């Protein structure tokens, strides 16, 4: 819970900024756990001010303490990056340095090979790609390729919406009681394009949870996400709405 402190001056009150530091431990399935069984932990330094924004910094570390990634946010709750964000290899070497502005690439996006040689140097302006160069592990110029591509459902977003409508059955108990709602389902699109680790991230009513999970399991295969030309596992959140006609 946010803590509010008040100081009385000539106005009725003024809200002072406050800094909170929170450390949360996660296991290898990204579930919250205790420190003894943790695979990694995240330290959130959140600053609340009189605009009610929650800017701050996030540091993700392995259980042994070495840093995986760190970055600054204009809003931690909404996951809006703002400033320099860095990622590291397991040996501690720098993997990437990316400049963000209000959730978009802005400025230099630089990545490195494991041997320390620069892998790419791209320039963005408010999310738009301006120019870039890619390099081999020996430092030679090579063909430029996009840094990151998000997973895409086979047939695109239009087909995804169609399949959600086709597969979803309105829960009978919710229909009888006239309940409507929305569920956010989180999952991972793995390197082969299959969905795994499906879980409810948010739900307005428990009567929709089982149906939302069932629907996601029925969805078609995805085109995997790509980072630096290689398929990667990508976390994805899908909203499913339940509305009565």
Identify the notable features of this structure and list them briefly.
mainly beta, 2 domains, 3 helices, eleven-stranded antiparallel sheet, 11% helix, 245 residues, three-stranded antiparallel sheet, disordered N terminus, TolA/TonB C-terminal domain, globular
Describe the protein in words.
The chain is mainly β. The chain has two domains: 6-144, no CATH class; 152-242, TolA/TonB C-terminal domain, CATH 3.30.2420. It is built from three helices and 21 strands. The strands form five sheets. An eleven-stranded antiparallel β-sheet has the order 4-3-5-6-7-8-9-10-11-12-13, with no helix packed on it. Strands 14-19-20 form a three-stranded antiparallel β-sheet, with no helix packed on it. It is globular. Residues 1-15 have low confidence and may be disordered.
| Percent helix range | 10-25%
* Strand residues, percent: over 45%
**What separation lies between the terminal Cα atoms?**
38 Å
Estimated radius of gyration: 22 Å
Q: How much is the average pLDDT? A: 90
Number of individual domains: 2
Largest beta-sheet details: 11 strands, antiparallel
Count of alpha and pi helical runs: 3
Order of helices and strands: EEEEEEEEEEEEEEEHHEEHEEEE
Instruction: Tell how many strands the DSSP assignment holds.
Output: 21
- Summing up helix and strand content along with how strands pair, one would put the structural category as mainly beta
pLDDT < 50 stretches: 1-15
Shape assignment:
globular
For the largest beta sheet, what order do the strands appear in spatially? 4-3-5-6-7-8-9-10-11-12-13
